[in-house]
Amino acid sequence: MTTVTNASKGTILIIDDEKVILDLTSIVLSNRGYTVYTAPDAMVGLEELEEHHPSLVLLDYMMPVMDGFTALKQIRQRFPDTYVIMFTGKGNEEIAVELMKAGASDYILKPFNNQDLVERIESVLRIRAVELRNRELMAERDKLLAEIAEWNRELEERVREKTEALQKAQAEIVQSEKLASLGYLSAGMAHEIRNPLNSINLFAQLLKSGCEEPEKLDYIDKILKEVDRIDDIMRKLLDASKRPRFQLSEVRLDRVIDATLEVFRPQTTLYGIEVVRAFRRVPPPFQADPSEIEQIFTNLFLNAIHEMQEGGTLAVLLDHDDREVIIRISDTGRGMPPDNVKKIFDPFFTTKTSGSGLGLAVVLRIVKTYQGKITVEKSDETGTTFAIRLPLLPS
């Protein structure tokens, strides 16, 4: 094995079992500025290829140990960037076609002319340079296309996120406008309805005091009951639209939740509902009206229990970070259709056979009073989860 090194125009490996061919070709090519390695057979040649990765191999067709055709297929498979010119003493077209199909870039008949050899080598190396450059450009193009595709995905994701944020903001604006409109409406209605309602209540009381007939007394009691029901609806309507009188004091959320759950213990026991408390980090006390905070949990627990009258799990998670308090209330009920989820906080919207549809509107108003947010995080056949986020005010 001989190595000849000059100021290199490229690296060429000559594999031939004829020492005369190796020596002569090495001298010719090294004088033309190539770095030349030689190997007396294909097995040694493959080792040289592994070590030096030449640009071009001059490979003899007829050799002992491993013939040139077998070596050609291995070189093209293992070293695709190395091009091969075959030396052959047989000049029929069938061999030429077979070699070109196997991956040879050219073939030269022995004996060869030195000038023709150099020209053929230069031609193959020019083609190799162009093809490798094209391959690099294709790889670069594929990389750029992949980057563009990734940019498009990122852009689409950002557009989706911004669109969702905008839709949420618009939904919050619509909710605020509904509550404001409800406030104007309920204030006027309360005045106009309660005056005649008080008169009805007063006259009914007068009729009751002077009546001794059981049937008529029953009718009067029903009138008074309906008056109370209308008054209760008006009160809920006012609560949903504007803040009633309130009194701030120090409130601990964990204690309010526990106290409200205790109130509902007879119902949860009756329906076989398991109550799971997950108080991960209890937030510090904050200033609020205790009855307002209790109303939040009362309404949400009522809804959850209504959905699980055949048993289930009511889970309450309480946590906080440096910025906000997080409360999640989950049930394992039937869930709600997507269209209902969109309308769940609208005043008077209800899927129950009885009820005013104002409970969640009241919850929304109270949560907003404390600069918080309430959302339906999940509602499907496995149940519903409400999430409340309240800002954690510095102590």
Automatic annotation (TrEMBL):
Occurrences of domain Histidine kinase (ranges): 188-394
E.C. numbers: 2.7.13.3
Domain named DED: residues: 161-239
TM region positions: none
Keywords of the record: Coiled coil, Kinase, Phosphoprotein, Transferase
Reaction catalysis annotation: ATP + protein L-histidine = ADP + protein N-phospho-L-histidine
InterPro entries assigned: CheY-like_superfamily, DED_dom, HATPase_C_sf, HATPase_dom, His_kinase_dom, HisK_dim/P_dom, HisK_dim/P_sf, Sig_transdc_His_kin-like_C
Pfam families, A to Z: HATPase_c (PF02518), HisKA (PF00512), Response_reg (PF00072)
Domain of life: Bacteria
First-level EC class: transferase
Domain Response regulatory: residue ranges: 11-125
Modified residues (4-aspartylphosphate): 60
GO molecular function, one term: phosphorelay sensor kinase activity
Coiled coil: 127-179
PANTHER family for this protein: HYBRID SIGNAL TRANSDUCTION HISTIDINE KINASE C, TWO-COMPONENT HISTIDINE KINASE
Official protein name in the record: histidine kinase
